[in-house]
Amino acid sequence: MLEVAQVLGDRYELRQRLREEGQRQTWLAVDRQTGTGDLVILHLLRVGSLVEAQQQAIEAEAERLLGLQHPRLVCHQAYFYAENGCFCWVELPLPGLSLRNWLAQGREFSPSEVRAIAKQVLQLLNYLHHLTPPLPHKHICPDSVVVTAEMGVYLGNFGTIDGIVNFEQAETSNLNSLLAGDLEALDKLARSLNPKITILPEKRISSRKNWRWLTWLQRFRGIALRRRFPRIKQLLKQLSKPSSTLVSHRDRVRPPRLQLDSSPRELEIVVPQIEQNFLKSVLAMVGAVLLPILGFGVIWFASAIVEIMNKVRDNGAWQSSDGITLVLFGLLIYASWLIIIYLVKYLINYCFQYTNIYLNNRYLRVRSKIWRLAYQKHQWPVSEIQNVQVVRRGAARRAIAIETRNQTRRFGDFSLQDSRRIVEEIQDWLQDKIR
Questions:
Q1: pLDDT computed for residue 186 by the predictor
Q2: What is the CA 49 to chain-centroid distance, rounded?
Q3: How far apart are CA 397 and CA 419, in angstroms?
Q4: 263 is a domain residue
Q5: Do 353 and 273 touch, CB atoms closer than 8 A?
Q6: Does some domain include residue 228?
Q7: Measuring CA to CA, which residue among 401, 349, 396 is closest to residue 375?
Q8: Which of 26, 28, 244, 384 is most buried, by the most CB atoms less than 10 A from its CB?
Q9: Same domain for 131 and 207?
Q10: Residue range(s) defining the domain that contains residue 188
Q11: Are residues 87 and 222 in the same domain?
Q12: Structural domain contains residue 122
């Protein structure tokens, strides 16, 4: 049990406990070695008994933190193992107050201030993510972001060591998820400061399993390291624009068409055959209502024709009105069948038909499907693909051409926007694999 005035490492005298989170405590302490009463921030993490690999990993992370040289990042002074079984690392205090303290004092942040804070934190994350190897912060929260009265932002309270001690092996092995997690935490932090504002420049894709939005930061998880940094710069550029460019959560945004699932190993894009907007949804509902009505109408017209033919046979005479009625009913049956066929095709396309594009290290496969039944399939070895481009299919429709060493083949019937997006995703994924 730690107490005030207790000395750790024969140097640091505890003065005040600042916070406690699980196995981790943060104390304000005095560095007795300087002789001038200098204050330091002491983080203590209860580690228990560690295997050698864990101990080496912790010390390696601590050495990386000691080597950070940035005026806006917290300065790590030392690390050591305390007598009570805790791993301790020492930070110098940062000027200003943490966001948690500002909020506790009733401080409210305007949209422009939220944007300024987010921009500065993002610049610091950009620096950390550019290190070799990249260094995730892993603890972006109100306690970690220190803001001065002049809106200068500092970043401290790293969470990299906690992950090693807590056996977060699955997360640690996925560097993409860790780096993306920093940006997700930054977005959450910005929205906690002003609930009506998000810093995200766009919401652009949806999940394979449903049509709900995934954020731009979730899209970031599937981006290879070489492509990540330009997108961080894009977000920085977005944050530099006037506050009117910020996106309100109340804004109504049209749902995305493409369902995309991207990872370093594979890329899958699902494109519905028909764009599901309001008018086409209304047409689909009207068609669903008209189908049974037209079906009964065809049966009634057919029975009426049979009745007229029986009447003519019984009377043994053919009247002109009977001929006109038969022609009229025949035309109505023909027109009804054409409408039924069109509506059935439209409803099938609307509800069940889609194009599935799948790309991995070995091949690019394109399948046109109705529900789970594939009725058309194209496949190309990745090693033979030389170019992917959009080609004209009609006045307003486009196809995608795959150029290989021996031939060029086309597939799909897409809008211009969809086709460009598909080609962009395929080209970017292939370029990442080449690099």
A1: 84
A2: 38
A3: 9
A4: no
A5: yes
A6: yes
A7: 349
A8: 26
A9: yes
A10: 95-256
A11: no
A12: yes
Report residue 116 as tokens.
């300024």
Tell whether 31 and 126 lie within a shared domain. no
Q: How many domains, the chain?
A: 4
What does the alpha-carbon distance between residue 351 and residue 185 come to, in Å, rounded to a whole number?
Answer: 37
Amino acid identity at 29: A
- Whether the bond between 264 and the residue before it is cis, its omega within 30 degrees of 0, is no
Q: Is residue 285 part of a domain?
A: yes
The answer to whether residues 369 and 406 belong to one domain is: yes
Placement of tokens 């049966």 in the chain: 299
Tokens 């809106």 locate to: 151
Distance CA 287, CA 386 (A): 44
Question: Are residues 124 and 164 both part of a single domain?
Answer: yes
* pTM, to two decimals: 0.52
Residues of the chain predicted below pLDDT 70: 48-50, 162-177, 196-257, 264, 273-281, 284, 316-320, 322, 349-350, 432-435
pLDDT score at 254? 38
What CATH number is given to the structural domain containing 216?
1.10.510
* 252 and 132 within one domain: yes
Do 200 and 180 meet the contact criterion of CB atoms below 8 Å apart?
no
The pLDDT, as a whole number, for residue 102 is 92
